[in-house]
Structures
1.
Amino acid sequence: MGAPTENSPDVATAKGPPEDPTKDATPDKSKCRDQALTDEEADACTPLQLGVWRVLLPKEPASKYKRVRSAMDKWSAVALAYPLVLRFLLEIYSLDPRMFILVVVLKLWDGMESVLLLYVSSRLLQIIEVGLREGRPDVNAITQAIIARLICVTFTATTTWAREYISPIFQSRIQRHFEDYLLQAKLRLDIPTSSDSSSKTKASAYDAWSSFEGLCEAAQRAFGLTSQLLFISQQKSGGPLFTTIAVVRPLLALAGSHSLWMKPHVLYSDNEAYLRLLSLESMSGTYYRGDVIAANIAGWITSQYHQAIDALGSVTSRHAWEQYGIERTPASNIISALAGQLPTLYWAINAMLNPATFSMASIAIMQQYSTSLNYALQMLFWDVRQVGKYVTDIKVLYEAAEIQNQIVDGTVEYPRPANEADTSKGMDIELRNVSFAYPGDKAKENALRDVSLRIPAGSLAVIVGANGGGKSTIIKLLARMYDVAPGSGAVVIDGLPIQDYTLASLRQAYALLAQDHRLYPLPLAENIGLGYPEKVDDREMVMQAARDGGAAELLSKFKDGVETNLEPVTTAYGYQLDDDKHKTLKTVLGKLEKTTEVSGGEKQRLVSSRTFMRFQTGKVKLLCVDEPSSALDPKGEFELFERLRAARAGKTLLFVTHRFGHLTKHADIIICMKAGKVAELGTHQELMALDGEYASLYNVQAQAFTAPEVAASG
Ligand SMILES: Nc1ncnc2c1ncn2[C@@H]1O[C@H](COP(=O)(O)OP(=O)(O)OP(=O)(O)O)[C@@H](O)[C@H]1O
């Protein structure tokens, strides 16, 4: 992104007079079309500009009738989801029936207690009123009312405590249950499905709890409001007319309330000056520290930052959620405030028409009723509006287990019986006219273009070529991390299309060693042992794998040996720690946060050991090695390749590398890739004789050792 220019619409606005935050909050279709939206997308959205923020809302139907229909459709969808909600509630009930009932009863009681408090308070006020009027307080009645109020308050405090005490326990039960369910749902997803942004993998166990709590809350509010309405409408100081008047204000407030928070929307900033500010600000963080210091660009960052501030001018960056609710005129605020005075007006008119009913207690009671109803209604509307979200969350939760993987499982077990395919030497691989583009890829050219090649069982094949040539993509297709689209060629394994085999059996026969493998946040023994999960606890096998992978020496460096967890999950968190006053706490926090660092090469050795552990299954028929040696020293690299070659019996070996030497010398077949195509194919001698792409890549590296000055210094 370049610096803001005069032509940038946002920057141009920024230089104008201070702007009314809601001024731009009008549909602005032309601007929407200016952005990176297709015509179809622009037609489906209503864009708003709120300061630096651009908000895209789904288009509402134009006519009022259609809007009402659309709202009704939304609610009928919520209503139709009741079997799912019932399933959800029954599932939670079955986790702990007693606790479920307790939580629900306590919630409903919460709704009732405001009515009880209203009753006791109004009773007390009436007794005091009578006492004042007669000049002689009814001590008995006052005592009784106060005792009743104290009991009521104590009971309320106890139930509140019980709710607070029980809720976290039940929340943990519910979350653990759904975490377990989601863990399984997510673990079964393949790479294209889990990276698909539209997939339902965003379900969370916390949402399960909050949906349950929210549904209980909505039920409690509805229960509470109904009991209040019934109670107040039957009181002398209340009555049906008063009740109706008292709910006018909250109803008006509801009709006039605009909250972006509750609406489906997409929010982003398209203000170049603001985006530049964010980028520059992020460069002050620890992530860029080293680069910023080395390049000595602190001064440049500061000056660019000031320029971006000037360019932003007075355009507000206050969050769009806060800006959205601001009205353009005070009209609705005034109407709502006046509506809030209706109960007082009612009381005043009533007092004038029926002076006998006039009393200080009655006005206090009315005020109480009206405040209580106002609050109960607002809370009910708030919670009921959320019900749609809870129902959606519950749907998403259950859909997580039903997501169809994009990689469809086959039916044939690998390896096939010996009479159908001989796999004793390893896996036989063929790519027939394969073209492949990554899902959602924006590149002009496919990652692979009409690639045909054959790697006979037991061969040592090496793929070389320039960056982005498609080398790793071939390996990913062989692991069925992705599938070739129908009609774009075929990957054939031992004579059958790769899709025919069951994924589990195929992956057992496959070992992948790549440069970007991660260490799991588990002890090293498990990190290595998980190459062969069934034998993960067999320390002898793990140590053998560590020796083969070149990690044995490294393991002996750690106090806890193979039990060391290099990257444990950290939960330590410090809050409000002062550098001077809380030195000890800071030291403790520092220790808790500390992870053990190992070098890139050492990490690679641990990951390589996992591959050697996998060899011990005896089922590996294809070993794919994708540049695992970039972090290794030359000796480590040589030893790794030698040990991998030594373990090649019964396996096809496929290496991706940029380094010519040990591997290319031993290769039965070299595949030279360029821009997604097979540029050349053959042995080292054959390709050198061609004097093409391979020879040119080889010569660049060879020159470094044969150039005259090197030869002279040697
Ligand atoms: N996950 C992905 N999504 C989209 N495009 C990708 C993805 N992975 C790779 N590509 C693109 O596919 C093309 C081939 O990538 P590939 O990783 O196979 O190249 P390579 O030959 O292994 O490169 P290198 O030598 O740099 O590792 C590149 O243009 C790359 O940008």
2.
Amino acid sequence: MNLRGPIVEVGDVRSVSTKYGERDCCTIEVRPDRGAGDPVSVTLWGKWTHTAEHAESGMELLVTDAEEDEYRGETTYSTTGDSSVVLEPDFLVDVTGIRSWVQCPRMYYLNKLSGVPLNYPVVKGTIVHEVFGDLLRGVDLEESIADRVEGAGLELGILGYEASEVEDEVRRNAAAIDGWLAQGTLSGEDAWRSERTLISPTYGLKGRADALRRGMPVELKTGKNTSREPRFHDKIQAACYGLMLADRGDRPDTGTLLYTKNTALDRSEATGDLSPAKEFSIGEGLLAFVVRTRNELAAMEWHALNGTGDQPGIPTGYEADATCEYCFEQDTCMVVSGRLDQESKAGSIGTALPAEEREYVDRLYRAIEEERRETHAEYRKLWEQTAAERAADDRALVDLEPASRTELDGGRWRLAARKPDDAVSKLREGDVALVSDGDPVGGDAELGRIRELGDRVVVETDEPVECRRLDVYPSEISVDRMLVAVHDAILKGDERRKDVLFGRREPAFSGPEREYVPNNDAQNEAVNLATTAEDLALIHGPPGTGKTHTIARTIRALVADGNRVLLAAFTNRAVDNALEALREQGLVGSAGEDAIVRVGTETGVRGDMRDLRLIRRGDPNDRAGELGSASVVAATTAACGSRVMREQEFDVALVDEASQLTEPSTLAAISLADRFVLVGDHEQLPPVVRAENDLQRSLFERLVEEYPDASVMLDRQYRMSQRIQAFASAEFYDGALRPATPEVATRSVRDLLADPDELPPALREDVAFVDPDGRRDGNRNVREAERVAEIVDAYLEAGVDPDDIGVIAPFRAQVAEIGRRTDVTVDTVDRFQGSSEEVIVVSFVASGDLDGPIFEDHRRVNVALTRAKRGLVLVGDEEALSSEPFYERMLAWADR
Ligand SMILES: Nc1ncnc2c1ncn2[C@@H]1O[C@H](COP(=O)(O)OP(=O)(O)OP(=O)(O)O)[C@@H](O)[C@H]1O
């Protein structure tokens, strides 16, 4: 049986005489059933006492195949020969993490903190891996090499490499694999599968194996190894995949390491064993070692969040017997130790950062690690929730019916399936999702990119999985990049910048005032603030106040002054909107001084901006030249953390939607530039994070409060009628928000109608409230949904264009409920931010009383109410809404 629960107490390791001789053991008390049961004792025997030494009360413990005993009337448990002991199984360790931990625990920490920079070995390694995958899929060697090197054109160009020299080197690496593969295929017995995404709920592991050969893991290493045995940490990596396969019931007994620089297939050369493939047996002892190693790592991560003492959860290097003199990370290790005043086996150099900066790094490190835990909780739902629950949660499309599979060039696959009519989810075209045969963890599953998402679903994968289910695949990339951003900004960051960020120096401004926007004082001041900033400028833009217009004007002014500008935003949509405005204002983006480059994926970049999209494939010099010479580079803030973008330098970074970004995500963009301009509105949507901690507050909001003189609020809005904007202006902007022109102020729903009398009397007002007397059931309210659909129909019948109407509801369930009844756009607030419609209908769902927040916070209501230009209808339960002062004021305004 399996025993699992939080640890109550850990006993001492002791030695006892048994019929097998002297054996070590340790007794641990846990509360089974995840803490619900009464404490029981479990005794860990033999090598598992190593894990006991890392265990602490509060950690979660899992013992598989435990044996139950009766001892003095009490039920106790102990490990058996088949048992595994797992600490913190919910903490999903990546296999690459285990690999670096085995080399040195501090290397694991340093990799996490500073990320992998753009360097030639990494890019070449990726190409060799891709070629390997291609060979397995039957692609010709030369064709694959040419194609993959071309695909990496941009990276290679930035690093200063020519295609031909890289091709030669990749060829040298790939020739041995090719030969070895040819040998294998001769026997006709090889059943290969390239790239395998694996998750192990039992052992808390995840990762992607390079390949499986007859079900056994094969790992590729772009290096040389002339000893008979694979390198220890390489072996551990392959064994991790073995363990994950074992968790699925496919226990492999052999692993293979392929060293690509070993050139001979012959095993007995005098120079050493030059065979590229080295096999090793995956015995029980090795698997148990992997589990114990993972336990050490998970325990350290637990301490990082829960531990006490000086620097809990930060490895020093003394944990391992690694020799620092031979370590290629020694310098980095010493610098980080010096700057953060950490103990480390390698020693330290340099002076420590000021205390407030170290405190900041510690605080954000912890907050980011908390967010990582929340991401792991998302993974857990893959196996804890049933397919129906995942679908109801909008995290999966289930019950797909496979329709066709087509092999594409390069051995990839296009899989099509039919989708049940009303199935909805968070998945969007362009997303990477987990495609599976119906069981994403235990069954056949692979990552694939969604190409089409209508009645028909089309995905592209490396392997031909039976496409019966698509799941949202949680990613740790944004968490990883946040850590790196903190590292880059604080450990490597510019001192002057840090003085401002830490309140040691006021932001400075210099240069002449100019007239940029003649018809709008606040916008004009904003552009001046941005162009004269020596450190930073903050532009606060309430709804419809011309943020995008101002951004474009600012960028034009900056470029005209000779600056290289990074334009970043939280969403692709905002990036493309700003580019559109830039083009409208005459910055066209052709080659030369005004060149604009848009960094993004094909599906991410809007159709009309594709001509600006940076192409990565091609001649290295051309590709790098295109990016390097552009005066404006536009990308999402997520993309700013990529290896390529981290190599770029700018004079000014202008970040839109900055109030929706966590502080570290903002740092990722602004660290690339000397000066920065943040544009946002902290009275609208806050950063989207799962953990409740410091990440919820944006750098924009913090700086607006700290440096009011460095900020300006755009106060004239070009969207809403006076009547509609009144509530938001009073509640969120101290009454300072006003219509920009009389035309805007006097807008009315009547403008849209040939004959206003065609509307029912209740809807003739520009702001209306309707109580349909509905009843909330979970996150939906059917009566209210019906009423919303009737209201939409009334507008349509009166002649309003369907494209001019939008419906907003607080919950996805209600969005689906309404969506079934109408064809106009229905969505949650988050999807509406940044857009507007002539008529907006808001469904509040709540009835009776307000037992939870309707919209998570009032800022979301602000967004909902400020999407409408001419007509706004609030649909909700009067009794419920009037039970909270904020909504009561809203009703009073609507009923006026
Ligand atoms: N100074 C100006 N003079 C004339 N029209 C303007 C000016 N500034 C903005 N506008 C117009 O106002 C409208 C809204 O501007 P914009 O799209 O820049 O707003 P925004 O603040 O980015 O909106 P959102 O709140 O959706 O982000 C646009 O049609 C734009 O052309």
